[in-house]
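User: I want to check something. If I give you two sequences, will you return the structure for each one separately, not as a complex?

Assistant: Yes, each is folded on its own. Here is the first sequence with its structure:
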Amino acid sequence: MRVLKSLVKYLLLILFSTFMSLNVLAEEVKSPENKEQLNISLEECMKEIINIIDEKSNENLDDYLLEGERRGYLKGIINRNKDELVTRLMLARIISNVFAIKPIYSKDILFDDLKNFPDAEYIKAVYTEYLMEAIDENNFYPSQKVSKSEFNTILENIKKYHINPNAYKEESKSNSSSKKEEKIKKLLSMTNYNTPKKKLAPGATIGFLEKGIAQAFINDYHIPSFSYNNSSMILLSDLNNYGFDIIWDEQNKKVSIYENKNKAITALAEEEIKKREELYTGSPLLYTNIAVYIGNRKIPCYLANNSTFIYINDLNIFGNLNWDNTNKVISIQTTNNFENDGLGVELTNNKVINYNEETVDLNMVHLWYDEKANKVNTVEDSVYGIPSGDFIEFNLAKYDLYEKNYHLGTIIKNTNLKENPFYERELNYIQSKKIIDYTCKLYKNPEEELLDLVKPSIIIGTMKKNAGVFVKDEKVEILYAEAGSWYQCRSTTTKKEGRIPWGSVSIPKDPPTNKKRMTKEQLEAYVKLKAFTSSTNYFVWTDLDRQMTYVFKKENNEWKLIRSMQCSTGKNITPTPRGFFTIKERGAYFGKGYMCKNWVQIWGDYLYHSILLDETGTYVLEGNVLGKRASQGCIRFSLEDSKWFYDTIPKNTSVWIN
């Protein structure tokens, strides 16, 4: 009995000792020192990944972290210390950097814990490439430290991906669960972000260049100038003659303006200035996606006749701007005080390029305009780890304001090396009325976009001499004409109207025909939007720009397109009058020495009729004229279309010619 008690005591002592040992071991595992040993450091991470990507000489590298930073693998990583423990988010960003995997901006959050999480787009990217998996079905745990065992698994994925990304993805997809494939499908289906209104397409007309409201001078040298919205504009390329260098960056579609104090001034002669002003005045101003920068400041620009135009007052950054209201003179006197911000980084659209000799982090501010509230909102943003000579791109779609406000511009506030000395100045510029107005004009709602498809064919001539109510060099709109006798004109400035002798006005060449046809749906939507009316059940619209005539018929109180006909209207020297008319008389034919069939009167001597035939009406005298301006003002159709029009369109039908 005594022996049994001793044995029990001995066994209990062993059990207690074992329990305590296990408890101590558990506590050791929980301790920070040991926990760190189970995770991966940033230095270890870089060493393993670099050895996979470049197998040859990496074992001899002294500093894997520095090498990873130099290669751009650490872009976006805030703390780039060798002992920094790698989180799942950091690893996702590193993998994206290594393989140049584009981030995925999607409205689908993918996992519950990624909602409003910074840089979640990189997690989405590596997830869809099958390089990293979630911890569970609903959560990714982006802040969780990466364990060594997990890292080793991901390294195997990286090795296979590095050898053949497409083969790896195909294999991974075939072994993937249906739930994951559904998540990826949903993620990729929600990547479209829309601005409050649709942005204009490059080439869309913004307005028209007008004669300059003032003479313009740069350092006392006269330069050609024009006017738009009561502001003076100049040709960007002309600055090459006035002490500036214009540098074109083809890759980034960017133009940079630099003052060159050592450059000889070759200012344009007065005769050449006059020619240029005559050439461009009246030209349509078009939106362009070319960006023009002075330093890191992006300035407004437009295209006209394939040339870029800017506002002359944007050159005030180089010196002093003076306005002489009495003499109507605007002048720029450049000084030696222009300074770059000295940050060593260049802002190019949505890209930041680092020209410093070391890696930089920087802070930016994005400015947005709320049109409804008439308010400017700002959002701060930071980018990290931009290597020397490398760049980083930022995507504005990730911000909530993208679909609510218009983006006015971006300013670099500072880098880890220097503050931006001109931050406040640039802040005031971007939120100025000029930039807000310019930006708002680049966006249109669907109705504005539809209206923008239809361009009026306005012919602007220049008076050769004083005639009637007009003076020499005055710009006039050519309304209609009697070939060889006179023109009916209207001044573009005073709006005075009058008749002048033939040959007293210089008229531009016929423009090319717009080949971009509108769809049936667009045409019907347009006439509905314009609320056209007619005394009959028919409505006729001749589009001079496209050399097309459309006929609509009223059905259930709506205009429905029933026929589209190619036509030939008046040349610029004998234009077809624009405006609203009503169909009047008609006849079977007319002509002496030739014949035109199926004529329908629009107004006065202006008619719809067939193309020209011989006097017997048997042979066509002119070929290949339809779709071009070719007549003395009448509108010509093919024989078939003229017969249909003659038989179908009743008297008093409304006609719109634009």
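And separately, the second sequence with its own structure:
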Amino acid sequence: MAVRGNRGLKTNPLAQLSDDEQQEQAIVQAAQIDGTAVRDLPINAVAPDPENPKSRLTPDSGLVASMKGEGQLGPGVVVAIEVWASYGNNPDDIYAARAEAEGADVDGDPADYAKAVAKAKEEIKYVINYGHRRWAAARAAGLETYRAVVSDTLKDNTTKRVHRLIENVQREDLTPLEEAREYKRLLEVDKLSQREVSRRTGIPQPHISKRIGLLNLPEEAQAALDQGIIPVEAAVELSKIAKDPDRIKRVLDAVAAMPASDDSERTARARLAVDQARKEYNGYKAAKDKADKRKKLAAEGIVIIDNLNSYFADKPGDRWDYEIGDEDKITAAREAGTLAAYVVSPDHVTYFLTELPPPPEPEEPEAADDEQHAEPDAAAAEATDAEPDATDSAAPDANGTVVKVERTTTTVPAPRAEPQETAEQREAREKREQEEREREATAKARAAACARIASKAPSREILTARLARRILLVEEDHSFEAQQLAVKWLKAASVVDEATTVYTLFGYDTNVDAKLAARAAYVYDLALSEIRAQDSMYYDAEDAQHIKRLIEEADYEPAEWEQQALLTAAEK
């Protein structure tokens, strides 16, 4: 059954149309002013406007009973079909609707269908502007006439649609999707902007925008909304991810799996629908923002890294050698076309070089003194030629003849001199070496101190304080949300005062005594379990333990669907 309701909209001057007595009085007064009388028209001579939501033609049982006993008290407003057609409307739509309502089948016998349409043309003389529900109830009650004012005061279709929309919204007679279609018709057919619709109806523009967004939902989600399976709040969240039907389906499947046999279960199901819809929207938005960031960087000529391990698998060196964080280096790499990026999130991008820079060229040794490279003088050369080499020797050959063997000396060039270390470089190197020695020494000292502490059994107070602080400082999913919840519960229990905040209790610089730290850690752990259970589509063993704890320690009575979820978790 479709769910209606538009509470929260501000009052509009035309809201008087939502009250039968005030509406009748206003219509009668208008009729008296322009000389138009309230008339009892043959009920078959009146037809509903095809643009009016079909749900308005479903007879209201209370109104039907009232008309059977009292007759029709409040008149409607109709316009002659010729005047209605002059607005640019097609009367054939009305005739076809009447024929089909009478049982004629457009795909059946053409002769029978044509006969039914001809009968409708003969009968219908007026089209309803206001009072569709009363006309439907009057027909259901068996009344032969329909009280109405025949008017042509609505000079254009736009005015007619705006007034009808105001009446229906103020009466809360439209489902969210019907309301959305009314807004869309004003935008597309009457070419009004959302702002203009808001001005003419008094309905806030954000409300109009959200309702129109519901029409982007897939059919399955629209059906779930119409049937009351998901509330309109969840549908609005899902409309934001209408382009990702898989995410929408996950929410619908999770909600459909929950029983809803009573009000408490229906409330729980509605809450789950909203929570899961928001969770899927947040995931969708994060993924979209990340993709947009990657696209933007790629457009700037930056190489996008999909997987760090794969990207650096075949590159020499360690990936940390490629990482750069200095803005000047990032700018230089960007200009050189050697910049790569790994997008963690839109606000967290790590930059790398695509290639390691080549090692610096070694410095050329300084030129030697001329004396070291002077050519030997001629006398020295002659002396060298004249004197036998000290390494010359004589040895007999195979025939016993002594043969002089000369041994030559090969000169090996001296190795190239290494670049000389400047005084500044030497000072920096010595400083690094000294810091490394100091770090190694302090690390050994700390390790020895830790070993001494580890050799002693801690007192219960010290152990509780240390473990509690460790729990409080651990960053987990939903940690801030859980901290807020823990502070709220501790305030309710008067454990902390009203001035206590997340930052004063859980901050890194906070000094709290061991007893309060232990209590805060205990409640924080409880809050994490509760948030996890709230976010779970299906309970697992951990969620089941949390529910069991609530049952045993707080006399919690689980709903029927929770009991089933506990049984399912126990079977896994």
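Because they were folded independently, the notes below concern the second chain alone. The two ends are 36 Å apart (CA to CA). The first helix runs from residue 20 to 34.
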